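Entry 14. Ran structure prediction on the chain below.
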Amino acid sequence: MPEPDRIQDFLRRLTPLSRNNLLTELERLEACGSALPGCATVVEKLRTEFRKDGQPHRLDNPVRYFFAPLEPLLVDGAPEHANSGRILRGSLSPIWEWISRNLLPTMARDYVNEMNRLIATDNQREAGRVVSTFQTKVVKSLEGTLNVPDSAALARTKLAIYTASHAAYDDVTKMLSVLRARDALAKLGDALPAKIGKFDDAQVTKISALLDGVRKTNAETVPFALALVATRLKTPWQLIRLATKVAPSKNVADVAVMPYAVVVSMVLDRLEDSGSALRIALKNNRVLVAKEMRSGGGGGEPVSRQCRPRFGIAQPAQPSIPGRTPDPFGLEGTRCRERRSGLLEEVDQRLRTLAPFELEILPCYTYRGSACFACERGPPSFHGLNS
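Output, C-alpha cells:
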C-alpha cells in the first residue's frame, strides 16, 4: 500500500468529480465483498471530503424518489451476477450521475431543485406528480438513446466514467423496463399479499392469475413481476412452483415451456446471492451477521435450508427457455452443484480459522466432510417441491 503522503498527493491530482466517482466505486466493491486490499485509508479520506457524517453513501431524497419503483428489485451482489429481474443497488449512483450529467442535465437539475422544495414543505402529492413527470421524460430519452446503436455505444462509454461495473449498462436497460411498467408493477404489488407463508396450490393459482395480467400487457416486465412476488414469499425458492405446479409432468421439456420457466434461473441466482452474502460476512469477520443469516433471524429462511431445495430434473435432450442457453436445466444443475461445492469449501476453511467463542455463536455448523449446507440426497430434483 502506498505511503499516506503519496496517497494524499494522488488524490489531490484528481478532479473533485473523479474523487467522488472513486469513492462511489470503492464503496460499491466493498458492498459486494470485492474490496481492494488496503483501500480503507483511501475510503476514509474520501468519505471525510464527500460524506458529512463520514458514513457510506446514501442517495439524496430526490434521487431516492426517482428510483423508488426499483426499490423492491434491488440486490447487493457482484456485478458479474446476472440477477434476472433484479437490479444491483451499486448501479444506482453511477446511473444517476450519468442521467444528471450526460442524459438530461438541465431537467435533472430542475427536478432536484423542485423536489427539494416540495420535500421541505412535505407536499407529497405534488412531489409524486413531479417524480412521475421526470420519470416519463427519462423513459422517453432512454428509448431514443438505447434504440440507436451509436447513441447506445456512447451511453456505455459515458457510464464507464462513473463505474467499472459491467452491469451498469444492463441495469439501465432494466430500469427502462421497470419505469415503463411502473404503474402495472405498483398495481401488482398492491394486489399481492404482504407475506406469503405457504406457497400452496391455491396461492400459486392466485398469483399466476395476477402475473398473467402483467404478461399480457407488459411481457418484458415478467422477470421483475416474478422478482416482486419472490419478495413476498417466506421461502423465496418456492417461486419455482410457478413453473412446476402447472407443468403436466416433472419432465424438463414440460417445465421448460411453461410461461414462467425463467424462475428456475432466478431461484438459482437468489441461492448464489445468499451464499455470497454469507461468504462475505465470514470473510469480514461479521460473525453475528453470519449467525443471523444462518438462523434466518432477519425474517427470511436460513441459508442452509435455502441451499437444500432439490430443483434439478432428469437430464433430457435440448429443451430451451426463451433468453437462456440450450439445455438450461442440465447447465443449471451443474451450476448448482459447482456453486454449492465451492461455497462449502470456502465456509469450511473460514470456520477452521474462527476462535472458540466465535464457533459458539455458530453452533449449527457441523462437519460431515462439508458444512451443514450439504445436500442430503445428491443431485437436485424437482420431485418433492410441490409437496
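Residues 33 and 284 are 8 Å apart (CA to CA). Will compare against last week's run tomorrow.
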